[in-house]
């Protein structure tokens, strides 16, 4: 995908469709720091109501394409970012309005496949309605993970080998559109993320350690996160935040490895501080899919 020139990203306020978690607000703050106004379109049942209240916003239900389009046009939004957690809904859970019904066949086709397939289909609907879909890392590059180690801790030789294995595994599973994270310890794959998400995967590893199913010392193992190969990076980039670091530490892992420039970091200073206190490294590997 060709990056949108920064000079082009100034047509009215930035529309941010907000799911769960802190990342939507990190994107909003980063955009504001760069002089871009924002308008949040918060998803009912997912977005944090207290955090949303601090910004100009509207509430929409999952599936209300028509309501979103009407509100976004009234607010002068052309550029839109999709960001935040959302569990894939069943068709019966969608709150369809007349604007959505015009795209019913496309929505149904999008639901038959992995998350990248679904998000690409949803994004295409917004493009057909005249909006420009932009990646969070394009409007807020300062919250993308940097290159190298953050904080005091660094991966050792064993961890570096686990990191490479983790990235190789994610590249191999990309065609199946399943998840964006794995946990590897001493060349053993402990977990592959699927529908449960990263947090639940980390909790599962912690539980397995407690019952003795993982007989490795505390501080051994790496959470590896990466976009799928050839993924449209306007949607669903991997993200980490303080909660990721805390759960990795509780799971007994030694660190976290991500793709620099292609991973969103919510509250980066808190990530570094917590990683330093917890003895966990956070490492950004070069993006091997990026151009020269």
Structural write-up:
Mean pLDDT is 86; it is low at 5-9. This protein has helices at residues 23-33, 49-52, 65-75, 98-101, 104-111, 115-128, 136-139, 157-173, 198-210, 242-250, 268-278, and strands spanning 14-18, 38-43, 57-60, 79-83, 132-133, 148-150, 181-185, 188-192, 222-225, 239-240, 255-259, 264-265, 281-285. The chain is an alpha/beta fold. The strands form 3 sheets. A 6-stranded mixed β-sheet has the order 6-13-11-9-7-8, with helices on both faces. Strands 3-2-1-4-5 form a 5-stranded parallel β-sheet, with helices on both faces. The protein is 36% helix and 18% strand.
Summed up:
The protein has about 290 residues and is α/β, with parallel strands linked by helices.
